[in-house]
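Students often ask what a 'structure token' actually looks like in practice. Rather than answer in the abstract, let us consider Probable membrane transporter protein, a protein of 272 residues. Its sequence is given first.
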Amino acid sequence: MVWLILVVVGLLGGTLGSLMGLGGGIVVVPALLMLASLSYLDITPQVAVGTSLLIMIFTGISATISYMKQKKVDYKSGLLFFSASGPGAVVGTWLNRGGDASSFQMYLGFFILFVSFILLIRNRLSPLPRSGKGVERVTTDEEGNVYTYGYRLVPVLALSFVVGMLSGLFGIGGGSLLVPAMIVLFSFPPHSAVATSMFIILLSAVVGSLSHVMQGNVNWMYALALIPGAWFGGTLGAAINRRLSSDKLVLVLRFILIIIAFRLIYEGMTST
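Now compare that with the structural description of the same chain:
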């Protein structure tokens, strides 16, 4: 029964992570910790994070392949983001080794609530100015909407480092911050933001999971049960994403972010 539950957890995490560009760890990590609290699994928070990051590699590969076929991945931007998120993932893994992260969970939860509010009023906001050395792109989505988006290098690198650090620290992929920032701050098309986020999360998960593997923070038996669901979930989430309009995708993203925020706040308060 436990192995069946793990397959379902992998499927849900992979589907949600691929659909929203969140990575899937936001489902896998709390699910593993809940099963551990019920004495179904013998697993520590560090192992839950390390195992989640390993699973995100398979979700990321599956989702990225699907988004590549849909031609929604901005590879150049993704590699630039990863140049900072990769080192950030290593730092996050180091921070994960000890200390009480409950206060940080609460702060992150409140920040994600703020991000969901920003998404609500995003049409009234202007993207960051791109004077000086920066990148600008123009693309047309499947609905015929033309998007002009871009960014300056310093804000992108700073944001990416923080996203990578959160990925290594909590095993949640970092997309809960990355996708809204790409949409609001840099005017990415929502579908492209999700697809590119999964590409970045894939690369960051490889770096973060390797760090956790070296520290012995991966349960390989649990991972084998989670991987099949995560793989199929990655493909399923990308397929659902294609059927959602940009406005509906942002609406669903806001809903998911609110759930994530309250979960983080609750866990932070109950673990203090």
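One point worth highlighting: The mean pLDDT is 81. Ask yourself how you might have guessed this from the sequence alone, and why that guess would often be unreliable.
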